[in-house]
Amino acid sequence: MNESHCYIVSYDLCMPGRNYDSLYQALKSFERWGKLTESTWAIVSNLDHVQIRDYLMQYMDRNDRLIVVLSGKSAAWNRMIADNQWVKENIVK
Description:
By secondary structure, the chain is an alpha+beta fold. Helices cover 26% and strands 28% of the residues.
């Protein structure tokens, strides 16, 4: 099995009024996850960035935007939705 890594996932949902509950459930299906801002999440997975993108795109419209980035070693933040301790343990290693 591949080693797990933390990825930052950010998206723009371009279809007004669409129900994206299935996307949110897909994001919550990863090993560990944290909602950082309204449309940015951190997830921990043994999948790579392309596999994560392809998986999440199943729950999005064709015109929605999505980026998946392998998290680095350092970060700075202010007033995220996720608990600061969760961020320290999962993003900043």
